[in-house]
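Hi there,

I know you've been waiting on this one. I reran it after we fixed the sequence typo, so this is the corrected version. Both the input and the resulting structure follow.
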Amino acid sequence: MNNILSSLEPKLIWKYFEEICQVPRPSKKEERISKYLMDFAAELKLEARQDKAGNVLICKPATSGRESLKTVILQSHMDMVCEKNKDVEHNFDTDPIIPYIDGEWVKARGTTLGADDGIGIAAQMAILASNKIEHGPIECLFTVDEETGLTGAEALEPGFMKGQILLNLDSEDEGELFIGCAGGIDTVATLKFKRRVVPINHTAYSIAITGLKGGHSGDEIHKGYGNANKIANRFLWESRKFKFRLSGFDGGNLRNAIPREAFVSFMLPSKNETAFLDMTKKLAKDIKAELSINEPDLKITIEKTSSPSYIINKSAQKDLINALYSCPHGVIAMSASMPGMVETSTNLASVKFKDNSEIIITTSQRSDRDSAKRDIANMVQAVFKMAGCEVVHGDGYPGWAPNPDSDILRASVASYKKLFNTEPVVRSIHAGLECGLFLEKYPFMDMVSFGPTLRSVHSPDEKINIPTVIKFWDLLLDILKNIPKA
């Protein structure tokens, strides 16, 4: 390990964060990080156990004089979103993340950093390892597969934990305490196509949409970032009059990330090339102007390419382009009860051609209201049903209803005001936290979520703000000192 972050404070958190960066931990492949945590507990001679799903729980007794406090669960998730820029060579199954310091930020080069939620794991480990921190009984819960379905939290069995208070360390805005979150569901459409022979007297072209910010499809959906799938399809829509024939569409990757890149390939009658290029030049200029504030690095590349092995049939092409244009993306409704808060949204996440002559379109919907979540999922379903797609909804996950009368919230607000002489913002978050699933198994649980400031999570631009890690750490330690008695 290079100890790149060894100069940063708090030293113990950054020490463990850099260690965690060395351990590959894609969603559904948490075997190495869970072994790392279990070995860590064994070295410290702490009680640790793992359930059937792979979730890890490490317990630490209270420090002297604090045995009467309620047991607190500190919680983070083990997995990370694995996104990289197309020109970066990186195997998330085997390669370590290499962090670097850029001013007040820690970043990674061309890949996601994994501070979501590696910084939560590091904070838990620092508390477990230190003999200088005052606290009552602690249980540290590390869940699996948060990013692709919250299946670790869903699989938790009653009785695995004993604590009555849970501090979720998976939030991304220092100065804000979260007491609620949106529920979510995935909607996946499958469009079958037939392969056709590549026509003669046609020229092969590709359009690449790159340089977009991407980011978290919940917490950043309101920021007006571009959707690469939507932009690429806009070019296809406007190119219909030139009688192009589609041969490929590869846009976006993860259901919970706003798509940053999209690549389409097609054949164009050679006689229409000049008019096509004139149109796309103007359209590219218009789109860049529309997104100039929010997406200053947008790049649109249109160029000739080698001929594909096939094109798709006309009816499938028409259905795909119409459906992608009609499919909603972005904020659907703002909250009436929490001004400035997104209530309902949807993300047109990815479009993929498959070898079995199918096109898979993945979307995800979120809402604070379960009925609104189902409504927008049905809206997306209807769009793709009209295009002749097979549509399947995932199981979804529940939201976390805010409890403004929470004891741990009052304690957290008091700690924040004492430490920083200002009021924290208390709100709900338009993202999926595991807290709603915890409440299904542990309905008595009193919870709050907080963390340091992260930006551009779920994208290769992910970064964590160094000064806010200090404030996050100070707040966590003060809350632990002031947990109510059992």
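Quick highlight: The chain has eleven helices and 23 strands.

Best,
R. S.
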